[in-house]
């Protein structure tokens, strides 16, 4: 019995390599909207952390970092927010910017009327919303109305972008999510606006305009016409000292959708510091020198130094 050995010849298979993509750098945008990092700070509010958790739960991978880089560098040139929809133009490597759009589920019909009435019946909750605070009770009210306050992508959020990337969300949409997170951190009312509930819905009808003054009052008696003179304001003493360079700006928080190259607070702190030093000089009566440091003449001994050039002065005649 003869055994036949299998001698089938197998051609060697070439090792497949990953397709190499050429690195593309996005085109710069003049005056683009820049994220200020408010949604990534250590002392974030609970609604800011929740938005970030929802956003990171979309499993963007490397697109998350690229989207944040786009948001920080100002690649978003336009951003429009209306109830239930956000549209943006994001500049990539192509000459034409990509159009990104995010649609949110809104409260409508009887559910909307019931939700607005429930919010108005809680004046303390409404007052906190109007001063950029978000009570956790608000989330329960939206859940009862059948519309979650924070987005759930598979249920109530639809996003699209005109870029050729097959992934959704892409890095351009990720940049828009980052900018929204910055604004939501500053003003949680944006979360309600995305669901179709505006500030006007919370405060109700505008107050009636003041009635015109009665001109029939006698000119010899100014009290009926102008009213009683106001009482003297109490003296509360000197204001408390603060170490913050720009306390009012820090109190207001980041400017919404800032278009500067540096953070708004950093820019204002630098300006406040310069203005405070010059204001103190004016208050003390000293002459104010508005020249730059490199334009000032400094006299040291018998030498003059001007713009890094030394000029020796002859003082033998003195």
Question: What does it look like?
Answer:
The chain is of the alpha+beta class. It has a domain at 38-203. It is 36% helix and 11% strand. A four-stranded antiparallel β-sheet has the order 1-2-3-4. A three-stranded antiparallel β-sheet has the order 5-6-7, with no helix packed on it. A hairpin with a 2-residue loop joins strand 5 (298-300) and strand 6 (303-306). Residues 1-21 and 313-318 have low confidence and may be disordered.
Task: List its salient traits.
alpha+beta; 12 helices; 7 strands; disordered N terminus
Secondary structure elements and pairings:
Elements: H1 46-56, H2 62-73, E1 76-82, E2 85-90, E3 98-104, H3 109-120, H4 123-130, H5 137-144, H6 153-156, E4 157-161, H7 171-186, H8 189-194, H9 199-203, H10 222-226, H11 247-252, H12 264-283, E5 298-300, E6 303-306, E7 309-312
Antiparallel strand pairs: 1-2, 2-3, 3-4, 5-6, 6-7
Short description:
The protein has 318 residues and is of the alpha+beta class. It has helices at residues 46-56, 62-73, 109-120, 123-130, 137-144, 153-156, 171-186, 189-194, 199-203, 222-226, 247-252, 264-283, and strands spanning 76-82, 85-90, 98-104, 157-161, 298-300, 303-306, 309-312.
